[in-house]
Design brief:
Layout (H helix, E strand, L loop, with lengths): L22 H7 L26 E4 L10 H10 L10 H10 L13 E2 L9 E8 L2 E6 L5 E5 L2 H27 L3 H5 L3 H10 L7 H14 L1 H28 L5 H4 L17 H16 L5 H15 L1 H12 L15 E4 L18 E2 L3 E5 H9 L41 E5 L10 E5 L5 E2 L3 E8 L2 E8 L8 E3 L3 E7 L5 E9 L12 E4 L2 E4 L1 E9 L10 E10 L2 E9 L2 E9 L9 H8 L7 H8 L6 E7 L3 E6 L15 E2 L26 E3 L3 E4 L6 E3 L12 H14 L4 H12 L3 H14 L7 H15 L17 H23 L1 H10 L26 H11 L18 H16 L3 H4 L11 H5 L4 E2 L17 E4 L6
Parallel strand pairs: 5-12, 6-28, 11-29, 16-25
Antiparallel strand pairs: 1-2, 1-30, 3-4, 4-5, 7-21, 8-20, 9-10, 9-27, 10-30, 12-13, 13-14, 14-15, 15-23, 16-17, 16-22, 17-18, 19-20, 20-21, 21-22, 23-24, 24-26
Helix pairs in contact: 4-8, 4-10, 7-8, 7-10, 11-12, 11-21, 14-15, 16-17, 18-19, 18-22, 19-20, 20-21, 20-23
Length: 953
């Protein structure tokens, strides 16, 4: 091995009709664009210690390979061919929805990959040696990179090199998103404009700001922080090494040609070098999507004012708090043994509250100086296209980014409204083997290529396999070590506050809402203006006509300005202050610890590692002896009696404890106050409430939550005992194909409807269909693999049409139009699989996280005279009268029954109108040039592990 001349190994080999591309087209595109040159496979280096004995498995669709040359992209569009290992995990992942009922431990391998360390003898697909001190071995089955280094630098260099092989275009794309430069990089499509306008104000930085964050970790993070930045530089060096080699060898991703970065014939052009500061920008994207929490206090205040306007201050506040549900006694919790972790409770008498005057709130403008197509779109809402003259051979690819590379609302609202992922863990006391069993993973949406990248890293101080977000993969972020595994779910607790900053004028004149200075501790201080200027022109990929604009935000010592208003008649700017702002990558130290076998040795050391992660996540752990849980996050210590759910005055008395705006540092709640536990009988998490007393950061943690789908099943399994990997996976997957409304709320709806005779034949038939569906498990699953039809299609269609109608019929008359609109703005009514929501828009997989199911459930039980804990402020359906409520529900059901399937499922680029099964399906959103077939809907983690360690060090 050491004597072998290092050469680049083939990453992919086209399948099927791509081989029939004409010789002329291949010559014009140059043979070098096809793939790297090959070397013979080498022997696999000796694997690290592995205590899982073949009982660890994982999966990440669509496949490990997320890179494609121009010819491969053409082959995909013309013939449907796939680069090798681009989609070989999609089939097994999809098949679980039909195969789970008969699942056994022995058949898990049909649906998951063996995640043992190393590559078995005879299964080595290729070996790349980018340096003498590192090898990248890929297995034949899935092409996963197994990076093994003899030095720390070499290991991290190899990780960066492998990331370039698998995700170069995606990493480049996301660093530009993080820097607020998406349109300049990928094109001016309206969705691209919307996306960068949503994200950049949440994390606006100058280059100096990014470098300061690197320096902070290096200097303030101790020895581990210094090592982390060395590892980051090595990773970037490896990524750049592959970037240069791929460019010279002409096997770089074809998207660079299609977006005008590189000429396919002459190879003129450049892939810009990567820098360590790019990783800070990338970390801000990941944190913004999955690790943030809180915020939105201005909108919360507006909904509170609407309630007070409707009912008066005292009653209106009571009503609003009942919907806010900060600590709903009926909601499902991860820690269920009665332990309380107080955080974010409503103060008995709030201090420093800064509610806006009615009608005074204006959102802060962001976009200025529009030209070309940007100006046209702002005036008319229409996009102007100016297609370039593309060569005939590239015509099939023209306009592939006309609708943007990602959904424009991907970053809308905080991560507390995009929380994802689930976890199921059972203590060894209740398993067949006596060892803990875990089924867990992040639910990060479905993209092509995937945002996550699967890899194994073995080197000095590093021994782990799993996934990392592409571009920040120095360490495994979710996966397994030698004798333990860990995963996370988005926690979404409140780490973002809104301050009302008094405005002023430097000359002492009267301020207005437009003033650009503010009072900071008694001194009139100018706001800092941050700008980003973006311009674009049409390319083969994006036909949007040339245009440009300037984004502008004002930054204060209390955060970035989001709104302007008056409070008690005086002008203020509302700002958003996030505890992780200016600290986007500080969590790197915690991840470094999780990868270090000399640090994580048991549940206690795992929890200590998780304490170094500043983003809001729920962390779960399993080894052969213990299961454990820890809620991470830089939870600021608020001033006494400050209500974190509403805006507060920007005065020193109401600041976070020990607040220093220079680097945005403050005191954080100690680890003992974070929800944590070891060896509870079982844990479940699906972005639900962590524990009693731990205040909800948004309106969604109510009496019915999608985590109920897991909790009921795992509780039953635990009570029965003898839990296995297969039985816990079956519980997860049954929940994944179940409609939350049908299982948890439909029984109450049917009780109300059946409280009297149903004389209308059409309504009687509809109720019978709903009852049969409920009895059958309220599933949205194919009758058999490939049938593309549900067992109860009419009932599913009726529920999809009925739910928004019944919510409105039950609540709007009592709340009134204004308050109903304000509250539905805080919490959407529905999130069915066919709706457009989540990080990928429609066809997103994740469903039933946000909706009014808890409100409907509480209200109907109150109307039925059943016990309700934490009841709403009043009864709404039928004004609390059962007969009137029944009439309202029947009328809304009649309207739903009358809706044809073509109206309930209107169709899109993927599905014909009326195709119910297709409307629910998961589609991997094409971020690059390769697309994949759709999958049966499953509400399950994107990357998922099934683990049961039989031994320990």
């Amino acid at each position: 091995m050491r004597g072998r001349t290092p050469r680049t190994t083939p990453r992919r080999r086209a399948r099927g009709p791509l081989r029939r591309l004409t010789a002329a087209a291949a010559l014009v595109l140059t043979a070098g664009l096809l793939s790297p040159h090959a070397t013979a496979a080498a022997d696999e280096p000796a694997p690290a210690a592995d205590y899982c004995a073949g009982q660890c498995a994982d999966i990440l669709p669509p496949g490990a390979n997320g890179s494609a040359t121009l010819v491969e992209i053409l082959g995909n569009k013309l013939f449907g061919t796939q680069p090798a290992h681009a989609d070989d995990q999609l089939g097994p992942y999809d098949a679980l929805s039909s195969g789970y009922p008969s699942l056994t431990d022995d058949t898990l391998s049909q649906f998951f990959n063996d995640s043992s360390f190393g590559v078995p003898n005879g299964q080595v697909g290729s070996v790349t040696r980018p340096r003498e001190d590192v090898t990248i071995t890929r297995d034949k089955k899935n092409g996963v990179p197994h990076v093994k280094g003899s030095t720390r630098y070499g290991t991290e260099f190899g990780a960066g090199y492998a990331a370039g092989q698998d995700r170069l275009w995606l990493i480049d794309l996301f660093r530009h998103i993080g820097r607020g430069e998406l349109t300049s990089f990928a094109g001016g499509a309206l969705a691209n404009q919307g996306l960068e306008q949503e994200f950049w104000p949440q994390a606006p930085y100058t280059e100096d700001d990014l470098q300061k964050q690197v320096d902070w970790i290096r200097t303030e993070g101790g020895a581990r922080g210094a090592q982390a930045m060395k590892d980051a530089q090595a990773y970037i060096d490896g990524l750049n090494a592959y970037r240069e080699k791929a460019k010279k060898g002409r096997y770089f991703p074809g998207e660079y040609v299609l977006t005008g970065k590189i000429d396919a014939i002459t190879n003129i052009g450049e892939i810009q070098p990567f820098k360590v500061t790019d990783m800070i920008a990338l970390a801000s994207v990941v944190g913004g999507l999955f690790g943030n929490g809180g915020g939105g206090e201005v909108d919360a205040a507006l909904s509170l004012l609407a309630a007070q306007q409707k009912y008066g201050v005292e009653k209106g506040t009571e009503i609003w708090e009942s919907f806010r549900g900060r600590d709903d006694p009926e909601t499902v919790t991860t820690i269920h043994d009665g332990t309380r972790f107080p955080y974010g409770a409503k103060p008995a008498k709030a201090r420093g509250q800064a509610l806006p005057d009615a009608g005074s709130v204006d959102r802060e403008p962001l976009v200025y100086d529009r030209t070309g197509s940007a100006a046209t779109a702002a005036r008319s809402g229409a996009v102007t296209r100016d297609p370039v003259k593309a060569p005939a051979r590239l015509k099939p690819l023209q306009g592939m980014y006309d609708d943007g590379v990602l959904p424009e609302d991907m970053f809308r609202d905080s991560a507390s409204k995009k929380g994802m992922s689930n976890a199921l863990l059972v203590s060894g006391k209740h398993t067949a083997s006596g060892h803990p069993v875990a089924v867990f993973g992040p639910q990060t949406g479905y993209f092509a290529p995937q945002l996550l990248m699967m890899q194994e890293l073995q080197g000095p101080g590093i021994s782990a396999r799993g996934v990392s977000f592409a571009g920040v993969g120095m360490y495994i972020q979710l996966g397994r070590g030698q004798d333990y595994a860990w995963s996370a779910t988005s926690a979404g607790q409140d780490i973002t506050d809104t301050y009302a900053v008094p405005l002023c004028e430097p000359d002492g004149s009267a301020p207005t809402k437009a003033s650009a200075s503010y009072l900071y501790r008694g001194t009139c201080t100018p706001m800092e203006k941050l700008e980003r200027k973006n311009a674009w022109k049409p390319t083969v990929a994006d036909s949007t006509a040339a245009g440009s604009y300037r984004m502008q935000v004002f930054r204060t010592r209390y955060g970035v300005v989001t709104h302007r208003a008056t409070v008690d008649g005086k002008p203020v700017a509302y700002t958003a202050l996030r505890s992780t702002y200016r600290h986007e990558a500080d969590s790197i130290i915690g991840f470094q610890m999780l990868n270090d076998p000399s640090y994580v040795k048991d549940a206690a050391s795992f929890q200590k590692a998780a304490q170094h992660i500043s983003y809001a996540f729920n962390w779960f752990y399993a080894d052969s002896r213990d299961i454990a849980y820890y809620n991470s996050g830089a939870n600021p210590v608020r001033a006494e009696n400050v209500d974190m759910s509403l805006p507060v005055k920007a005065e020193q008395a109401y600041e976070w404890r020990d607040f220093d705006p220079a680097d945005n540092t403050s005191a954080h709640t100690p680890p003992a106050q974070h929800p944590h536990s070891v060896n509870q009988d079982y844990y479940i998490s699906w972005n639900n409430k962590q524990a009693k007393g731990f205040g909800a950061a948004n309106f969604s943690l109510g009496a019915v939550h999608r985590a109920d789908l897991l909790d009921g099943r795992v509780k039953k399994l635990t009570a029965q005992g003898g839990v296995t990997r297969a039985s816990l996976t079956r519980a997860m997957e049954e929940a994944a194909v179940t409609d939350l409304r049908g299982e948890q709320v439909l029984p109450e709806l049917l009780k109300v409807l059946r409280s009297g005779p149903i004389t209308d034949p059409a309504l009687s038939k509809a109720v019978q269909q709903l009852e049969a569906w409920r009895k059958g498990g309220a599933q949205r699953n194919q009758t058999s693999a490939g049938s593309k039809a549900y067992a109860h299609p009419d009932a599913v269609r009726i529920m999809d049409a009925w739910w928004p109608l019944l919510v409105k019929a039950a609540f709007e008359p009592g709340l009134g139009g204004d308050l109903y609109q304000a509250l539905t703005g805080q919490l959407a009514v529905d999130e069915s699989p066919s709706a457009g929501h989540g990080p990928t828009g429609s066809h997103a997989g994740s469903a039933f996280q946000y909706g009014w199911w808890g409100y409907v459930d509480k209200d109907l039980r109150a109307v039925l005279g059943e016990p309700v804990q934490g009841a709403l402020g009043k009864r709404y359906c039928g004004a609390g009268d059962l007969s009137s409520c029944r009439d309202a529900l029947l009328a809304s059901l009649a309207a739903a029954v009358a809706k044809p399937a073509t109206e309930v499922y209107p169709g899109d680029d993927t599905c014909k109108a009326g195709d119910q099964w297709c409307a629910d399906t998961i589609v991997h959103r094409a971020v690059g040039g390769i697309s994949h077939r759709s999958m049966q809907w499953q509400n399950r983690p994107t990357y998922q592990q099934v683990v049961e360690f039989p031994a320990h060090r």
